[in-house]
Amino acid sequence: MFFDLSILCAVLALLHVTLFIFMGHQRLAAITNIFAVLGLVFSSAQFITLWQTKHVLPFGSVSGLFLFLAQALMLVYVMMYVKYRRLTLGLFIFPLTVLFIIIARFAGGIPANVNPHAAGFWLYIHLPFTIIGTAFFMVSTIGGIMYFVQERQLKNKNFGIIFRSFPPLDTIDKLINTTLYIGFYTFTIGLLSGLIWMMYAKGMINIYSPKLVFAIITWIIYSGITFYKQIKGMSPKDTALSTIVGFISVLITYVGVAFFVMG
Amino acid sequence: MQLAVLGLNHNTAPVGVRETLAVDGSELAEIYSEIMSNDRIYEAMIISTCNRVEYYIVTDDFLCNIESVLEIVSEHCKMDRSELRKYTYIHCGEDSVRHIFRVASGLDSLVMGEPQIFGQVKDSFENCRLYGGAGTFLKKLEEYTIKTTKKVRTYTGIGENPVSVSYAAVELATKIFGSLSDKHALIIGAGEMCELASKHLVTTGIGGITVTNRTFEKAQRLAGEVNGSAVEFDRFKTCLPDSDIIISSTGATDLLVTAADVKETMAQRKRRPMFFIDIAVPRDIDPLINELENVYVYSIDDLKAVVDANRKQREKEAVKAMEYIDAGLEMFYEWLESMKIIPVIKSLRQQFEEKKEEELKRFSSKFKIEDKEELAKIEYLVTAYMNKVLHTPLKNLKNASAVKGRYSLDEALKILFELEDVK
After folding, report:
1. Considering only residues 30 to 69 of chain A, which have any Cβ-Cβ distance to chain B shorter than 8 Å?
2. Which pLDDT belongs to residue B139?
3. Gap between the Cα atoms of A219 and A208, Å rounded
């Protein structure tokens, strides 16, 4: 039931944010946020129920991973809304949430049996942190895309609906920085805990594991971006570009993992 | 009782006529007392701003009494009545209530959606109370006007998207920088446009302002007005690296800031964004600067395009605002309908009180009760019983009076006494 309710909330949040952008009624903004929070509550309730009944979390399956990613995106949206009060972000996040929930649905919904190898303390640290980190990277990429779109509007002097609805460039830049840094630290914890889990589970760290190789490549790219920003400084436009490049690397990691693992 | 309004505004009267008819604060007492001296006018209110003068009256017969107001106005401003009629409009009933909601929301203003009018309408209601023009009707109208206007301003974008060039410039700056509290502006020129833009920047909470002008004293004067600093004209380029917003409006015939200057500045600023607003004709800022990364240049024509787009947007928002105004109007008239029942309720209560007194007298003489304490106890019992019996029908009578419709007597009884089980 919670699964279906969270899908419904994500779809309704998407519908209302779209209406808000075109119609501008402030009530629609409030309704959007109510559905976003409800979606988060229902998806959390779903995980809590699974933990109470089976004492496991559903990370051992593709559907479980996508469900958690959808939930993490909702969580990042709510956090970023509380900080920056920008509803437009939902216009990009909610379609992804709906897409991931649909993928989870096609991949089998809530898994009935959980892979026993996917249970364990370090894995329960590794997977959530990696997925939440990925969700933050996704939102920083969305911020990057929004920056370029709004920047074009300002340069070309287009004062249409996008110009009015999108946040100021400075706010988008701050949002990118916040999500980039939180994403980087979260992903780092996810990566380190993954290494520890690998040591406990297999007695050694297999550096030839495709998962590990691509995860380290992603980490190196994001650490490069964050350290360069810290030490040399980066213009907002370059930061926006770097988040997009960084996320392409994350995509390659996931596609690469799927290709190697399946292949 | 109904509301009627006699008024003129920027659409119906030229500025000269509006000036003649404007009511000064010192004249209010006299005009209020003249209007209220008419027995058929129960309440009155005057709104007088630079763009409108309006007289609201609560009366039974608006046609006759609006004429008497017209006479007072014509005497006051020494203008012939027929001449005055050419510039005025009259609304009555629902139209006049809708009109005041529109006025307070800024929909009827010269600059649509401007917020100052709301404060002016609130002041007018306050004056009306002060000079004895307010009664139940206008007090309730004030409450609904405030409620409706707040809804319009909260739930529609009528006040967003500036429609003046200097406001639009500052608004664009916030579209780039968000908060301006940690940003610095350089103002090149000290003319009227620069002064307006600087003052808007200060209102928006700009971190700091530097002013430069060929006549240094003028730069110092403007800097003093906006709590900024002045810099000599030949040294203003040294301020560029620290300036996020540059507003220029001088009479210079050559470009004052070139692409090469900004290229050098951007390297020093680590390519943090810069926003140039060029209000001068001919231009002060090289338009090629807009080609540079993280730099935005807006000329006077660009700003006018922003203003036009914003004006169209406000017109769209006005349609939304009318939905809230109509909803407010409906609620106000529900209240007004419910008020019609008050005399009936009063009369019914009085009748019950009289019967109670009569019966108490009859009862005390029949049973020869002279002990006052005992009589008080009996009266207490009868009063409590009477109030209990009357409570439900009176409550329902008040609620049902706002609903239009006719009931048969048995239906009315069922509604009044909540006799749900009767088949």
Report:
1. none
2. 94
3. 16
Q: Which residues of B touch A24 (CB under 8 A)?
A: 156-157, 317, 320
- B395 CB within 8 Å of a chain A CB: no
Name the pLDDT band for A158 (thresholds 50, 70, 90): confident
Question: Does the pLDDT of residue A248 top 90, yes or no?
Answer: no
Residues B182 and A174 sit within 8 Å (Cβ to Cβ)? no
**B313 and chain A in contact, CB less than 8 A:** yes
Residue B401 has pLDDT above 70, yes or no: no
Q: Are strands B2-9 and B52-59 parallel, antiparallel or unpaired?
A: antiparallel
pTM of the model: 0.72
Strand partners, B47: B54
Taking phi over 0 as left and psi of -120 to 50 as alpha, with beta for the rest, B8 belongs to: beta
Show residues of chain A in contact with B157, CB under 8 Å.
24
SS3 B89: strand
**Rounded CA gap, B239 and B236, in Å?**
5
A159 touching chain B per CB within 8 A = yes
Amino acid at B268: Q
The radius of gyration of chain B from alpha carbons, rounded to an integer in Å, stands at 32
- Please write the tens of the pLDDT for every residue from A188-242: 999 999 889 888 877 777 777 777 887 888 899 899 999 998 888 888 999 999 9
